[in-house]
Design brief:
Elements lengths: L7 E2 L2 E2 L9 H15 L3 H14 L4 H14 L2 H11 L9 H10 L2 H8 L11 H11 L4 H6 L8 H14 L3 H12 L6 H10 L4 H8 L2 H9 L6 H15 L7 H13 L4 H13 L3 H8 L9 H14 L3 H13 L5 H13 L3 H11 L3 H4 L2 H13 L3 H14 L4 H13 L4 H14 L4 H13 L3 H14 L4 H13 L3 H14 L5 H10 L2
Amino acid sequence: MLGLAGSALALWPVPASAAIADSRPLATYLAARAADAEGQGDAALAAYARVLDDAPTDRAVAARAYRAAVAGGDAALVRRAIAILGKEAPPDAALFPLADAARANDPAAFAKALTGLDSGILRVIAPALQGWLAETGGQDGVALLDKVPARSLAARFAAENRALLLVARGKVDAGVAAAESVQGPTGRSPVIRAIAELLVADHPDRVAALLDDPALVAQARASAARPTLAFATSRLLVRLARELDGERGSVIGLAMARAALDCDPTYVPARLVLATQIARSDDPDRALALLDPIPLDGPFGEAALAERFPLLARTDRDPEALALARRRAEAGTADGVDRARYAGLLVQADQAKAALPWYKRMMKDPRFAGNATAWLNYAAGLDAAGDWKGARKALTHALALSPDDPQILNYLGYGEITHGGDPVAAIALLERAHRLAKDDASIADSLGWAYHRTGDTARALPLIEGAASAEPDNAEIAEHLGDLYWTAGRRYEARYAWAAASVTAEPRDLARLAHKQAEGL
């Protein structure tokens, strides 16, 4: 028997398991769960599918297989699992019959699928889609959407889709005005961009004026569409998935993104949102695979790169990230963003001197010359290359551009303390940074370290103890805490703090920490 009756999935209880006499499915199921826990999505998906072959009526297995198939893009297994689960399927399972009907442009199937959007967050999109269904059937979808109560959660999505329906009817001015009344006259609003996708094939000049950004126009051209059920459903699901975006993955957000891509496999924003959800569900390799089809020299290339580089870092593929960044920086179409990214990766790879020419070229880009963060990054590169004098000058320039930026204040103040600058001025900078960002552990550590370096260890200790408690994995803070404890005569606690620092320290710092643990200061 598969002992699954007590298991649970986020948002929705897993059905009780059916009995399975053979021990082989149990071993395969346990292997699937282990692969799932390790972020090995493809292995888990294959194993769940095998277990379901051996236990085709086991709803607990079907529940796990459903989640794995949604993440892995196994459309057939998603539908098979939903069929097995029946009424015990999770609410988001209703998205996939909807996606199938939208892609097939089948109004009857779409109407039937809409009845499944009757619970939870999915209810907020049902009225908007009912408006599209009515319009497809020759009825007045706009009038239907006008009846959605203004204070309901569905009202915003209904208003946005009312604007799209007006454009679909050829009432472009009215549609744009309606969209702007909902989200303002900005080309970056989702509804304006969706309008641009409908117009770009036949009205490119109007789209250029509407978006006022060549990059956005290129994205609209790549996403050009006709006003179909697939268009409406995919854009609405991506819209809602982005609303649900957070630091961790959301099972319903992931299902929305997958269903959106099922509706319109060519819609790159759906692929990007899906990759983000997969990455936040701790499967970076699968997220990278989702990004692979997006041309890096295309209109969505920069968005794909913004996702790709952190994923490469998470999977310890730093050489690949560096090589990719170099190709981008050396390309004839490279801009300041490409150069800044490559320079930053060079610094992370302990090649700061090689980064400096790229930083200097970056600062010649007009977009960066007046950007305080760009000057801060340039300063970090100079500092890493051993040029504190140049770094100090760059930080001073950054501070002039953004005098209340706590990160700039922190870097300049800490740098002055560690490089023998004016301690009074440095402490003033750090105290100001701390007032602006009281919850920032790194800034608290910097201020505490400055107090310690100027002989006031008693004042420093509570700051650095608090910082270490807030960021227990920060090796620099832990090392500072050990130094303070040693100075205060608390030798055992000092060695403990240095040992803790060694767990997450960079390899180049391990010898120093080992010496401190053995010999003290």
